[in-house]
Amino acid sequence: MKIPFVKAPIIGNEEEYLLKSFRSAYHGGGGPYTRMCHEFMQTKFGIGKAMMTTSGTDALEMSAFLINGKPEDEFIVPSYTFSSTANAFASKGMVPVYCDIREDTLNIDETKIEKLITKKTKAIVPIHYAGIPAEMDTINKIAKKHNIPVIEDAAQAVNSKYKGRYAGNLCELGIFSFHATKSYSSGEGGALTMNDEKYFDRAEFLWEKGTDRSLVVQGLKNKYSWVDYGSSFLPSDLLSALLYAQFENLDQMQERRKKLHDAYVKIFEPLRECGLKLLHVPDTVETNYHAFWLLFESEQQRDKFLKLSLSRGISPYIGYMALHSSPMGKKLGGDRYNLPVTDYVSSSIARLPFYLMSDEEIEYTCANLYETASIALGIKELE
Q1: Which of 247, 274, 290 is at the close of a domain?
Q2: Spatial contact of 3 and 314, defined as CB atoms under 8 Å apart
Q3: 168 FRET partner, CA 20 to 30 A, in 192, 203, 247, 351?
Q4: For the domain that residue 352 is a member of, what is the CATH number?
Q5: Is residue 7 one of the residues assigned to a domain?
């Protein structure tokens, strides 16, 4: 049996809606399915305004525009994240300031943020790793004290909750991703989420390639002109049609992912006594079961686990390479960081295959990964 690391989800009415959108002859951005996705996110997640984008990266770039990021401005970001989280702001000339992470959730360590704040700090950008929101109450409190906006990178956390509130609704700006690797997917796509009205109008201008066309659509002007920065941030309505079919089955898909999550917890729990660490979900969080990870004691153990698993047709994956020690990360943020938890996690983590598996796939994957982990940990001999 071949078990890939991830497989794009298909459930429900994707084909029907794609065909309907195709036959409508409206394939551009801002069409009916795009508007339906906006309404769904705003209603379901309690978001003030949601706007579909071509990617989560584009949504982050829109947020960098919205906070008026300029060269030499600083933004605080966990070093353990995908490059887009930093790139969107660094492309405006902003300087990344890397923060270490917590070992239990692998999210930004909220206790280390405040000492990184300077007069140049323009934003705090936490991520919600593996669908588990960061400690947003503490982060928002720090940000409010210093009058700094928070932008939650909730790329992995669509439908997750923190203290009863949905991701995307935990601070004034946020983003989702609907990439093929995400829990809910349109192949490529994302969304900007806004919970402060001061951003609403300008976001429309950015979305419409820097024009005030949105005012024409609303009947407030009879012609539009170039008024701001912007880009082609709108996705095709074909992609929105695909996503909306999955939104209709959001909770059903999450239940299926929970089944795999629970199976992983059950099979690997006994290995905690041998030094293996598992994904941890705090009591304050209702996760969307986006991902599952194992943390070995060393890089050698992790690499052995990966090699043995691949030999059985199962494809776990490494995590992120730390930004602070990457070539571009050093170039933009300097080579001055000592982030021990980030370094340890980057070298020792294994992300397990996670998608809408069948019962047979779950059984095969769990049994074989338990055995390869046991061999990697040295508690079982390789036969």
Answers
A1: 247
A2: yes
A3: 351
A4: 3.90.1150.10
A5: no
| CA angle 322–325–141, rounded 5-degree value | 55
372 φψ region: left (φ > 0), alpha (ψ -120 to 50), beta (else)? alpha
Q: How far is CA 213 from CA 42, 201, 230, 379, in A?
A: 22, 11, 12, 65
| pLDDT tens-digit series, residues 145-184 | 999 999 999 999 999 999 999 999 999 999 999 999 999 9
Minimal CA–CA distance to 243: which of 44, 4, 5? 44
In a domain, 264, yes or no: yes
Q: Is 40 in the same domain as 128?
A: yes
Pair 289, 325 in one domain? yes
- Using CA atoms, how far apart are residues 342 and 324, in angstroms rounded to an integer? 9
Tally Cβ neighbours within 10 Å of residue 68. Answer: 10
Percent of the chain with pLDDT over 90: 92
CA gap 261, 281 in Å, rounded: 11
* Residues spanned by the domain of 64: 14-247
310-323 per-position pLDDT tens digit = 999 999 999 999 99
The answer to whether residues 182 and 53 belong to one domain is yes
Residue located via tokens 């790139």: 87
Cα–Cα distances (Å) from 381 to 249, 306, 352, 374, in that order, read: 44, 16, 22, 8
* Domain identity same for 203 and 243: yes
Token readout for 2 is 């071949």
Look at residues 200, 225, 247 and tell me which one is the last residue of a structural domain.
Answer: 247
Collapsing DSSP to helix, strand or coil, 214 comes out as helix
Binned at pLDDT 50, 70 and 90, residue 326 comes out as: very high
**3-state class (DSSP) for residue 353:** coil
Number of domains in the chain: 2
pTM above 0.85, yes or no: yes
CATH number at residue 50: 3.40.640.10
| CA dihedral sign, ordered 38, 39, 44, 47 | positive
Measure CA of the first residue to CA of the last residue in the chain; give whole Å. 20
Judgement on whether residues 310 and 182 belong to the same structural domain of the protein: no
Is the same domain home to 121 and 39? Answer: yes
Q: Under a CB-based contact definition with an 8 Å cutoff, are residues 168 and 174 in contact? A: yes
- 29's tokens: 């951005």
